[in-house]
Amino acid sequence: MDAQTLTYIFVGVSFAIYIGIAIWSRAGSTKEFYVAGGGVSPLANGMATAADWMSAASFISMAGIISFMGYDGSVFLMGWTGGFVLLALLLAPYLRKFGKFTVPDFIGDRYYSKTARAVAVFCALIVSFTYIAGQMRGVGVVFSRFLEVEIETGVIIGMIIVLFYAVLGGMKGITYTQVAQYCVLIFAFLVPAIFISFQATGNPIPMFGMGDTLASQPDTYMLDKLDGLSQELGFNEYTEGSKSLIDVFAITLALMVGTAGLPHVIVRFFTVKRVKDARKSAGYALLFIGILYITAPAVASFGKLNLMQTVNKKEYADMPSWFTTWEDLGLLAWTDKNSDGKIQYLGKAKEGGDALTGIPQFKDNERGESGQRVVTNPSENKNELYVDNDIMVMANPEIADLPNWVFALVAAGCLAAALSTAAGLLLVISSSVSHDLIKKMVYPKISDKGELIAARLASVVAVVIAGYFGINPPGFVAAVVALAFGLAAASFFPAIILGIFYKRMNKEGAVAGMIVGISLMLFYMAKFKLGWIGEIPDKSEWWFGISPEGFGTVAMLVNFIVSITISKFTAAPPADVQEMVENVRIPSGASEASGH
Fold first, then answer.
1. 44, 130, 413, 424: which could form a disulfide with 484 (CB 3.0–4.6 Å)?
2. pLDDT digit string (tens) for 6-38?
3. Prediction pTM value
4. 504: how many CB neighbours lie within 10 A of its CB?
5. CA 505 remoteness from chain centre
């Protein structure tokens, strides 16, 4: 059976399962809509959390960005994995014991202030929309390739699917849908990795195969081959980093603390019955997440090796069909700068320019003499190949010439990863509007039914905005998502951690810290990443040598300093708030209070 037919079957069956689960578990109350009724088992919640966490950035883009960054890409592995450990140990149990629906709910009550709640709602919306922009781009890329539609059409289809089970099922429907999505995505990630590892090294365990010798060259280790080929083509050694130590540290820390401040992940720990269940589900989630994260470097390494061996110095006319398919979708491009009809995939050291990884821009329906699409943004260096980072995981089965059913399985996995996180983010956005804004601030007398309707309407508006950002993305999936982590680190992390462990922390300090932190991060993004404040400056002008992806660390430290300083010079929190903080920190397990 051909790959396209298998893809429709695999994707169609998986969608039918998701929609069936949403109908079966539809929410009938606000508690079911926001926190699945608080009755999810730790195992199911761990799988759902893993699916929520392993978004398009983890499944589609992380291995791709490691492929092109090499050793430097390890910051994503360290930051995102370490961040979940931080979340599990420092935040999840305490927030579950606090027992509120959302992060703005916690901040509003802990800091006894509508202003604090309003600022938290604003921050939650900014973080969630930045994050969901990456997810919807992932949805569009996946649909465009596997269902052979335009990226814009793919985004719209994804919007409709997500909206259906997010609006109908709420957190209850999303939770059990995400359990199914985890099973699909992890299977889809591991199977091609096993195939490719065995094909290249004879070792079926990808993470071991990455350090093994090549089957075709028994005396050569795979990573040595990759290093040698990279240097031969003018790239940096794959296993050597080029980022400064301070930037590596800043990005890793920003991703870690950003993880601990992400509202769509934190809310998952409100869906279990007891505090000890929150701890258990965090442990399960870390295990399930780790399976993908320890495999991603192998997928990246094998993918990069296969790509370089397949395309460089080869005639464009001899390229396999997958090359022109991705080219037609606007995610791969070749510019014949020396008119020899061959693809020159070269790096900076050899040919005087960086490898062209980016989003190609094409002239409408115009093709060169060799039949390639004509790009409007060719660089001045000699490298001729443009590669969108986000295609590497999806193109891997084709580059390695794996069976068609593996290709179809990857399609279902990519969609599961992107849709699962998009649904969780939509819920955060809708609950921030309906519960934290309308119920807690604007119209406290709203009925349970009215609040549920408001939440669903907010989801509709949110998915439309998310779709716009998916069609007009500011960058690669992983790059966009990294900015969301920076925003979460700059705004939420200090307010949450100080709210739990520092009784003297008051509303004035928390509000000032959040405003300063997120404003500083937004300014840095606008100036150094998005080009909203003049032309994007050169890397040499980065403050302290820190990239926009790592600047969340600086903004977070400023937030801490502002928060603590202002709280020292203003009135202490009321006695009942300080007592509440003490109670949240009391170890639970023996007491009935553990269920609160």
1. 130
2. 888 888 888 788 778 777 766 555 555 555 555
3. 0.80
4. 13
5. 31
Beta pairing partners, 375:
362
Q: How many CB atoms within 10 Å of residue 457?
A: 14
**Strand pairing report for 332-334 and 385-387:** antiparallel
Per-domain residue ranges of the chain: 3-26+35-302+402-587
The backbone torsions φ and ψ at residue 230, rounded to the nearest 5 degrees and listed phi first, read -60, -45
Six-digit token string for 74: 């390890």
- Give the residue ranges of DSSP H helices in 342-447: 348-351, 392-399, 404-431
DSSP state for residue 271 in the 8-state scheme: S
Which helix (H) or strand (E) covers residue 566, if one does? helix 551-568
Q: Give the bridge partners for 356, in sequence order.
A: 386
Q: What are the pLDDT digits (tens) for 351-391? A: 444 556 666 666 666 677 777 777 776 666 677 888 887 78
Question: Quick one: CATH architecture of 3-26+35-302+402-587?
Answer: Up-down Bundle (1.20)
386, 353 Cβ separation under 8 angstroms: no
Rounded Cα–Cα distance for residues 538 and 354 (Å): 14
CB 55 within 8 A of CB 130: no
Q: Return the structure tokens found at 193.
A: 């990795």
Pairing outcome for strands 373-375 and 362-367: antiparallel
Query: Tokens in use for 310?
Result: 């397949």
The Cα–Cα gap between 491 and 428 comes to: 16
